[in-house]
Amino acid sequence: MSTLPISTDDSPTFLTELIFRLKVKDAMTREVITARRTDPLRDLQLLMREHQISGIPIVEGPRLLGIVSMDDVIRALDEGRIDEPAGDHMSRQVIVLEDDMPLSFGISSMDKYRFGRFPVLSKEKQLVGIITSRDILVALLVEFNREAERLEDDIPSRPTDDSYRREYRVRKYDFELAGKPTSDIKKRLKEAGLHPKLIRRVAVASYELEMNQVVHSEGGTIAVRLNPQQVEIIAIDNGPGIPDVEQALEEGYSTATEWVRSLGFGAGMGLPNARRVSDDFEISTGSHGTSVRCRFALPEHQTEEDSHATQ
Amino acid sequence: MTAETIARIVEARFVCGESNADRELDYAFASDLMSDVLTLTQENVLFITGLVAPQTIRTAMISDIHTILVVRGKTLPRTIVELAEENDLTVMTSSFSMYRASGELYKAGLSPVF
């Protein structure tokens, strides 16, 4: 996966949240100027001038065949081939985005490929829009403004009991930051002096639940609670819920999309892994969301209790 | 077997953590699926992968893996190298395929995890 031009670790939460919450389809231009492969390049040149654009997708019905850029037109002009059909001059290897991808993917693609524009396809592989860096900027500014207003009312709650508790927000499709909460939890448990093997089990559960929220949910929270008896990892997301929990708990059952799999996840091991490492595992789900609680008993405490019992 | 020896066998180049190349590795596990890596319980496991993503590094950290061999000649973006450095990981890359790298290391006596 290509990386974003900003560090999502250090950037304000609401900015990074935006680029993961917004989808490509929220920013793209839906009215795409297109041409057919039989159209002469000269027509495309005129279209570019008229609409002040630098690239035109070549289509057949809703299907994308290729793209002709300003460079292609200039080259054809140089070579005296401007009256030839566009189909002979188009690039066929087009980097496209999917309309459901998070906007962060659009931004990282801009950064990676340096193209001025990316055609956007639907799941059915039909051309549904086109996106430029300008589109992304506009969409971000509009949302940024809305979000800033909302944030003024957002006051985080603090725990009141004496056990250690910390909650982390997890964002949909935030693959850059996924795992950071778990790294923090791991560090905290190490400081608390827990056994490395136990810490590793907790971290595996936490990480899998985190990845589940990133991949499948609308976002949520991962909380860790540590008291002298146990460690708990509590994952609560904002939906859409798991249609068949029994199936989701089976190893290898997965509903992940192709691009999630390309990032090394979505093998259908998330919940089974989390359950395997936990001493106690509870899950409840509905359309409002899913909550999972993994409990890990602290062995020191068991020993202590045992000795209390014998006294 | 040390990371240094491994690098020699698979003709790998160190991307970061070369100063820790004398850390001993008892096992190796090859996978592009992070959840499979998370099922491991052994220590001192060499993680062989062709997946280059922040999750590669985070999965290693969570699984107490300190050495990663990236195969198929993949290059690592700077942000991923930084994440690895911050976490004291040793990362090397080899142009070998996963099959060839695994085969060579197995032949040289590096044990599988199961």
Short description:
The complex is a heterodimer of chains A (311) and B (114). With 311 residues, chain A is an alpha+beta fold.
SSE topology:
The complex is a heterodimer of chains A (311) and B (114).
Chain A: H1 13-21, H2 24-27, H3 41-51, E1 55-60, E2 63-69, H4 70-78, E3 97-98, H5 103-113, E4 117-121, E5 127-132, H6 133-151, E6 164-170, H7 180-191, H8 196-216, E7 220-226, E8 230-237, H9 245-248, H10 258-261, H11 270-277, E9 280-286, E10 289-297, H12 299-310
Parallel strand pairs in A: 3-4
Antiparallel strand pairs in A: 1-2, 4-5, 6-7, 7-8, 8-10, 9-10
Chain B: H1 3-9, E1 13-16, E2 27-30, H2 34-37, E3 45-49, H3 54-62, E4 67-70, H4 78-86, E5 90-93, H5 98-107, E6 111-112
Parallel strand pairs in B: 2-3, 2-6, 3-4, 4-5
Antiparallel strand pairs in B: 1-5
Spans of chain A with pLDDT under 50 lasting ≥5 residues? 302-311
Into which percent range does the helicity of residues of chain B fall?
Answer: 25-40%
Overall morphology of chain B: globular
Contiguous helical run count of chain B? 5
CATH fourth-tier homologous superfamily of chain B:
HprK N-terminal domain-like
Largest interface: A-B, 29 and 26 residues
Largest sheet of chain A: 5 strands, antiparallel
Quaternary state, please? Answer: heterodimer
Output the helix-strand order of chain A: HHHEEHEHEEHEHHEEHHHEEH
**Count of individual beta strands of chain B:** 6
CATH topology of the largest domain in chain A: Heat Shock Protein 90
Please report the total strand number of chain A as a whole number.
10
Q: How many domains of chain A, as an integer?
A: 2
Taken as a percent bin, the fraction of beta residues of chain A is 15-25%
Mean pLDDT level of chain A: 86
Task: Quickly count the domains of chain B.
Answer: 1
